[in-house]
Each structure stands twice: as C-alpha cells, then as structure tokens.
UniProtKB/TrEMBL annotation:
Domain PH, residue spans: 531-638
Protein name per the record: ADP-ribosylation factor GTPase-activating protein
GO molecular function: GTPase activator activity; zinc ion binding
Domain of life: Eukaryota
Keyword flag Ubl conjugation: no
Record carries keyword Cytoplasm: yes
Organism per entry: Schizosaccharomyces japonicus (strain yFS275 / FY16936)
Subcellular location field: Cytoplasm
UniProt gene name: cnt6
Regions annotated as coiled coil: none
Keywords: ANK repeat, Cytoplasm, GTPase activation, Metal-binding, Phosphoprotein, Repeat, Zinc, Zinc-finger
Pfam families associated with the record: ArfGap, BAR_3, PH
GO CC aspect terms: cytoplasm
Length: 930
C-alpha cells in the first residue's frame, strides 16, 4: 500500500482461503505498509521478473471483495478508484480525462463517494474479465489506484495504490512458495512499498513504465511506449542452489554494486550542483529584474515600454521556472535517489560480509554435523535443520537484495524517479515557453515602435553631423561666446543656462559677489540698459597694469575670465566653470575708458581697455572675437558718452529738481550704485566746471591709448589746471570753442597736435581712425600736455589752421559738415581735408624756405603753410633748428615741428646749432635710445 496515509488506514480483503482476511496497514508517512493475514499465516507474493513488481498473490477467482476504510475526510476532491493491468494504462486514462472536456470522461473511474465520510468503510469488488487468457505469469496483474481530482487545478493526485495478482487455474504458477516460515511480524512488505519509491511522495501522477505484463484486455487503449532494455549480462535464476555458479553470480553482482554505488554517489553530487546552479540563475534573474526596474524608474524612456510589456512578465516566468526546477531536482530526484543510496547501495558491503560470515558458520556446522557420531542423531538433525533453514533464508534474502539492485525494484525506482522528474520538467518548460511566446506580440510592438523612433533619431544625427562638419570647416573655431545688441533680447546663455540660470539656481553662491546688482538681471527685452550686451571668455592677467607699463612680456600668469558687458561695465567672473562663480574685480566702468588693439604684448588677439586709473589687457580667443569685442566695447563707450552728455545737460537745465527724481541713465545709475565712483573723474570735472553756467563744453572725455598718461594721483590737480587752460584757449581764439571740422560746440576737448587743431570728441575719433601718420590726437583734459604744447594750441587756434587747410573748401563739391551732420559725412569731409589734402592752396610753395622764413619771422600762417607742404625733415632739420630763437620763446614751435616729424640731430651737431636752453628742451624730447 502506498500513498497518502492521511486518507486511508486499512484496506482489507477476505478473499483468501478459510475466509481469512488480508490486512494492509499504512503505518507512516512514507507509506510503509504492513500486511498480514488475520490468522497470522504467511502471505503469498509473486514477482514479475521482467517488470520487477511484487504482487500480492491471490488464487484463481472470479471476484474479490476489498474492504476499504477511510481515516478522515478528503474534501473537496472527489476520490476515485482506478483498476488497470499496467501503469501505462493508468497514465493514459488520466491524461485522457485531463485533456478531454466530455461529460463522461470519468467513466473508467470508479467514484467512491462514501469515502467523504469519516471512518466509513467501502467495499469494492474486483471482477475477473470475461476473456481472460493469461500468458507468461499465468495470471492477471492488477494495479489499483486511489486518486483525487481537483477541478480547480485540473490535475490528479494519487492518494494510495496497491498491486495484486490473480492466478489462472490452468497453469501452475511459478510462485515463490512454499515460503519459509516467516513470523508475521517480520513480514514487512518492503518490496513493493520501498521507502525510496517515488510514489511515496504523495506527488502528482507518477509516470511509470515497464513492459506490459501480459496481453490482457486493457481497460484503456495502449499509448506508445518505449521498450525498456533490461541488463542481460547476468541471467538470474529464480531460486538457485548454493553452488560455484551461484557464488560467481554473487561475486559479479557484488562488484557491479560497488561500481554502481560510486556512480550514484557522483550522480548525487552533480544533481546538487545543478540544483544550486538553477537556484543561482533564479537569483541572478531576480536581481537583474530588480536593477532593470530601478533603472526604468530613473530613465523611463530607455526601459519602460519594454519592461512593462515584456521584460517583467517574461523574467517572472523564467524565475519561476528555474526556482521550480531547482526544488524539483532536490525533491523528486536527489532525495529519493539518496534514500536508495543510503538504504540500499551503501549497505551492500555490510550485507555481503554478513552473508559470508553466516555462510561460513553454516558450513562449519554442516561439517560438525556430518562428522558427529553421537547417539542422539535426532537431536543433531533437528539442530542442523534449523541452521540450514536459517542459512537458506539468509541466502535467499541476500540474493533477493542483490537482485533488486540490478534488475529489480530498485532499478525500476530509479527509472521512475528520473522519468517523473523529466516528465514534469518537460511540461514546465513547454508551459513556460508557451507563456513567454504569448508575450511575443508585445515584444513586436516595442520593436516596431523603436523603428519609428530610430527614424527620428536619424534626422537628429544628420543635423548633428552637418553641424559637426560646419565646425570642422570653419577656419576659426566658433566660440560659445555670443554677441548681443540692445535690440536683441537674450534667448540663451552659455554655458548652458548661462550666468542667469546660474544665479537663479544658486542664490547663496551669488551672495559672495561684491556687487550683487552688477550680476545679470534676467534677460529682458533690451533698451532698459540692463541687458547683457556681450559675454564670453577672455584671458587676462590677475591684476590690471599701470598705464606706463609697456611690455607684457614675461607675464605668464594669464587667467581665463568670463567677462560680461552690461550696463556700461565690464565684469570679470572667476570660477565660472565651477559652481562657485564669483566676481573677480570691481566691474570696470567704461565711462571714461577707451579701447584699442594692444601692441605691447607678444600674445595674439589682445586688446586694451584703458581707464583713467589703469590699463587692462585682454586676450580674445580668436581674431573674430577680438574684433567683435572691440567693436562692441567701442559702441558701448560711445553710447555711454552720448547718454552721459544728455544726462549732464538735463542736470544743468533742471538744477532745482529733487535728487530722487533725476532721470535714470546709465551714468547716474553707475554713480548711485558705486559710492566709490562718486570720486570719479566725471564727478571731479563736474565740480570743477560747476561755476561755468553757460557751458557749451562737455565734461566727457576719453582716454587715448597714447604714451603720455596721467598718473591717477594727479588727476584732480590736472583738472584744475585744465580749466584754466581751456579758458585761455577760448580767449586766444573764439573759434577754439567749436570743432574745427564740424563746428560742434559740445565736447570740444580734443586736439590733433600736428596741425594743431581743436576738435570735438566725434571728430577726434575720426581723426584717430586715419592713423597717427595723419593725425596725432590728444585730449585737452586728460592727456598730460606740456606747457609748450598748450602755448602752441593757444597761439595757433582753429582760425589759423582752417585758413590753411580749408583754403579752397568753397570750391569743393563737398560741403563742410555741421555738428548735426551724419557721421559718414563728417568722415568723408575729414578724410578729404587731411588725408587727401583736398582743400589746401599751397601751389608751388618752397616748404623749406617758407618754414625757415616763418620761424624766423614767427609767422604762424606761413609756418602752417610750409608744414602742409611737407618739408624734408630728414634732410633739413638742422636748418630749421638753426633759426629757432635762442631764448625759450619759440619752444612751442619746436613742439609743432616735432609733431610733424622733425628729426632731432645727434647731440654733437646740436651744440653750437641751438642755444643751451633749446638744446635742453630738445634733449627732453629725444626718444629714449637715441
Ligand atoms: Zn567736430
């Protein structure tokens, strides 16, 4: 009896002779059963040598009643009984029922509804088939299964089973009888109910295989079955006598057992490894799925479409499969096989030694018995017979044991174990593959969607590729710096987000800036004066240099600053590549600055921003950037000046206006924002000129990047003297109040010393653009003009200059511009007047003679005319110097000559040529190195 002991206690039958009852008792969970006759007599069994099954043996009958007792309820399943002639037929019936939907698919089964009640017994009657024509074992084998079926799970469960054999009357059966007189307690029906039997596992259907025992009418049609080949190396007799042949069989089987034991041991180890591997794979798959889900949460676009539709369900199937394969290997293969190994194979040596020991004892006692000549023959005989019986019993047991291991129940058990496992394995893999296959549509969907996405990405990569090509082809690498004008609102900054974004993100970091208000305000549509005009990467030394510092050679520590032009100021930021962006210096106000290309450095792309206080040299990243920066800075300076002038005028007109109501401009803003800059030159100048009510003079002036620089400490003093100088200048010639070229009366604070002519700020810019060989421009206010130069300017004046340089202006088509003329007209006029010398009337003037005569007679017009005729200074310098008055009264003329290219002769020639006073003056003017 095998199976679920929870359900059945005993199955008894009273089919034996003398109405005796045969009782199966289920003892423990493993299905160990005990069977005995009620009389205590021995139970006959029969062995199927081909199939290896032990059967309870019943004499020929037409029917047998079995009484089945139920131990406890087994709801909710219905319990059935199935009787068939071989295990294959049993499997076939079950499969038919499982796969069919017919109402009568349960027909082959005998339902046992009574078993639903506690402690009831049910009688099942076996009836012999009508056309029973047994062959082979001369009888009919019967397999009886108690099964339950779960509609929910759609599967069967074997509760218990047993086998019996009904002999045919005609042929004498080769039974293993007469059986030795076993005591009833010894008769454990171990053979068919071995602990290692897979059926003891209460498992699902147990596929079992084997030969059809007989060609008997089967309860079900035959399913295809594989012919199993039995090991035929040793032909085992049923009950051989102890002989050399028997002993040699034993030895051979013993040797085989040893080998087999080693094989099984190795096999167990491999099964364990395999199971661990499956477990590892299941774990790895689980971890894989976990990290895919995590990544999917972080970046849904990369994973989510596939994870939701395919990856998660597919991986779950796979994990389940590997987990169940792992546990199946342990429960259905390893454990039962290990039981066979421990309970049977490992005992082989012990049993052999025991048998040999017993055999030795028996033959000793046989010798003793035969040699004994005592009178008490009967006693000896009976003693010997007992010993012989014991020995025969031992011999039989050992023979059965060793037979079972090679061609009996044990081999069948092992086969059943593996068949069962692989049968389940097959079903599970097929099921899993079907499940995963059903997800294929989703996988397809994602792939098709991906193809569409790829098309979109191709467009993107094409765009990027063409952009890359453009960058490569550009001769100068385009820098990320962008130019902005007031008309263009800032759309985007660089680095991504720009400083604006930066400030937005880290207000805390911005707080360490010395001047928060100088930081970027969010880009607003221009014209509010706050927009970033231009920003970008520039290199510069850590500190500004002084005006007198000429060479930048040897200065190696150039730093990269992010420079921002905004509100008329140039702000430098350090650490712009990191988070902690901070202002490097006080933003440089461009109010009094000028910009020019730097020539005093050996580095490329350099330009200078010159303020009254210092000179700042910047290096741009490319030629185009250099020009871009210079242009933008110059425009800004100009715009600053214009708005500043207007501002000044407004201030003068509305002096009584309350301070807080002053119109806002860049200028006033900068004054308000930077208390320090209240002491700026503009403020000083405003103070200096405050007495001058009717001023047509501006206060704005721009530094020129020429060598004579005003040390900042003398600035205030200079402006005091400038005030006096300018008033002197205007007194000497009222035309000096107006620009010599355009007649403008505002910002007439410039001059070109080689003519010498007084100019407005705008015309001075145009003069500068002509080059120093045409015009040497100076600021009347901010350049350090020598006394002689000031004297020269006062003595000459615009009236004299224009008398020479505009002598024939009325004959020209070009009209003299006014202060309101367009800049382009002013440019054209100034170019015509000075570069092309278009309005001169000098005819065939002898420049040398005129100049000598002019100096001698101190005739300014004559001197100017002579200079306009370009005297040859490289040849005649000494002649001109010779006529200079020996006192210092004509030193101012020397300034004029020097500005026009007078070549200073060597010291040796000077002596005797000019007076010592003049020589001392010339010595001061001599360029260093001569
Ligand atoms: Zn002008």
């Amino acid at each position: 009896m095998e199976g679920c002991t929870d359900c059945f206690t005993t199955i008894s039958t009273s089919c034996l002779e003398n109405d005796e009852t045969l009782v199966f008792e289920l003892k423990d969970e493993d299905g160990y059963g005990r069977m005995h006759r009620s009389s205590g007599m021995f139970i006959d069994t029969i062995l199927d040598p081909i199939h290896g099954d032990h059967f309870l043996k019943f004499p020929a009958r037409n029917s047998i009643d079995f009484s089945i007792e139920l131990q406890k309820r087994v709801p909710p399943h219905t319990v059935f009984l199935l009787n068939c002639t071989n295990p294959d037929a049993f499997q076939h019936v079950l499969r038919t029922i499982q796969s069919s939907q017919d109402a009568d698919r349960f027909a082959p089964l005998v339902a046992l509804p009574q078993l639903m009640c506690d402690n009831e017994s049910y009688t099942w009657t076996w009836t012999a088939p009508a056309d029973c024509s047994p062959i082979g074992l001369s009888g009919l084998p019967n397999y009886v299964y108690f099964i339950s079926y779960s509609e929910h799970e759609k599967r069967f469960r074997v509760l218990a089973r047993f086998r019996f054999f009904v002999c045919s009357e005609v042929i004498e059966t080769p039974t293993i009888s007469p059986m030795p007189p076993f005591s009833s307690s010894e008769l454990l029906c171990t053979s068919p109910l071995s602990p290692g039997s897979p059926s003891s596992l209460n498992s699902e259907l147990l596929p079992s295989s084997g030969h059809q025992l007989q060609r008997l009418p089967s309860t079900a049609s035959q399913k295809p079955s594989t012919k199993l080949v039995h090991s035929a190396t040793i032909v085992l007799p049923d009950d051989p006598e102890d002989s050399p042949g028997f002993r040699s069989i034993l030895r051979e089987l013993g040797r085989k057992t040893e080998c087999f034991r080693g094989d099984v041991k190795k096999l167990l180890k491999r099964i364990q490894e395999l199971s661990e591997a499956f477990e590892f794979i299941a774990g790895a798959l689980g971890r894989f799925m976990e990290s895919v889900l995590t990544a999917s949460a972080t970046c849904p676009a990369a994973f989510q479409p596939l994870v939701e539709t395919y990856v998660a369900p597919s991986l779950q199937h796979q994990i389940r499969l590997f987990k169940s394969t792992c546990s199946d290997l342990i429960h259905y293969v390893f454990e039962p096989l290990e039981r066979i190994y421990v309970n049977d194979l490992k005992l082989a040596t012990v049993k052999r030694i025991e048998f040999e020991e017993f055999s030795k004892n028996y033959y000793t006692s046989l010798s003793r018995y035969l040699a004994n000549k005592t009178t008490d023959m009967a006693k000896d005989e009976s003693k010997y017979l007992v010993k012989k019986k014991d020995f025969e019993l031992r011999r039989f047991d050992y023979y059965c044991y060793i037979q079972d291991l090679h061609d009996g129940p044990k081999t069948q058990d092992i086969l059943a174990i593996f068949t069962s496992y692989f049968y389940q394995q097959h079903e599970k893999w097929v099921h899993s593959s079907e499940s995963i296959d059903s997800l294929h549509a989703q996988l397809d969907g994602v792939r098709n969607g991906l193809a569409d996405l790829t098309l979109g990405l191709n467009d993107l990569s094409k765009k990027r590729e063409s952009r890359r090509r453009k960058i490569i082809l550009e001769t100068t690498v385009e820098s990320p710096i962008r130019e902005k004008t007031n008309e263009k609102p800032i759309k985007q900054s660089f680095p991504p987000g720009g400083l604006g974004l930066y400030r937005h993100q880290s207000v805390g970091a911005a707080s360490n800036l010395s001047d928060k208000s100088s930081l970027y305000t969010p880009s607003s549509p221009a014209k509010d004066g706050n927009a970033i005009i231009k920003e970008g990467l520039l290199l510069a030394l850590s500190k500004p240099t002084s005006h007198t510092e000429v060479s930048m050679v040897g200065k190696t520590s150039w730093h990269k600053y992010w420079v921002v032009l905004q509100r008329g100021k140039l702000a430098e930021y350090v650490n712009w590549k990191q988070k902690s962006l901070s202002l490097h210096n006080e933003p440089i106000s461009l109010a009094y600055a000028c910009v020019k290309k730097a020539e005093s450095t050996d580095r490329r792309f350099c330009f200078e921003v010159i303020t009254p206080k210092f000179k700042r040299v910047y290096q741009a990243t490319s030629e185009s950037e250099l020009h871009s920066w210079m242009r933008v800075l110059q425009e800004t300076i100009k715009a600053n000046i214009l708005s500043g002038v207007n501002q000044e005028r407004t201030e003068f007109v509305s002096k009584g206006r309350p301070r807080g109501m002053r119109p806002v401009s860049m200028f006033s803003e900068s004054i308000q924002q930077h208390p320090k800059s209240r002491k700026s030159p503009a403020a000083v100048l405003r103070k200096a000129f405050s007495g001058r009510k009717n001023s047509s003079w501006g206060f704005r002036e721009i530094f020129r990047p020429e060598p004579e620089r005003i040390p900042s400490m003398n600035l205030e003093k200079l402006h005091e003297s400038s005030k006096i100088f300018i008033s002197m200048l205007c007194k000497s010639d009222p035309e000096n109040l107006h620009c010599a070229d355009c007649g403008s009366s505002s910002d007439v604070t410039w001059c070109a010393i080689n003519y010498p002519v007084i100019l407005c700020i705008e015309c001075s810019g145009i003069h500068r653009s002509l080059g120093t060989h045409i015009s040497k421009v100076r600021s009347l206010l901010l350049d350090s003009l020598s006394q002689q130069l000031k004297q020269l300017l006062c003595k000459v004046g615009n009236t004299n200059v224009n008398a020479v340089w505009e002598a024939r202006v009325h004959e020209s088509d070009l009209k003299k511009p006014s202060s309101r003329s367009a800049s382009i007209d002013k440019q054209a006029f100034i170019k015509k007047k000075y570069s092309e010398r278009g309005f001169l009337d000098i005819g065939n003037v002898d420049a040398k003679a005129q100049l000598v005569e002019g100096i001698r007679t101190n005739n300014i017009r004559m001197i100017l005319t002579a200079l306009a005729a370009k005297p040859n200074f490289s040849r005649d310098s000494c002649d001109f110097l010779a006529v200079i008055k020996p006192d210092t009264s004509q030193l101012y003329l020397l300034e004029l000559l020097l500005a026009n290219g007078l070549v200073i002769p060597p010291e040796s020639k000077l002596t005797g040529l000019v007076s010592p006073e003049v020589q001392a003056f010339i010595r001061l003017k001599r360029p260093s190195g001569q």
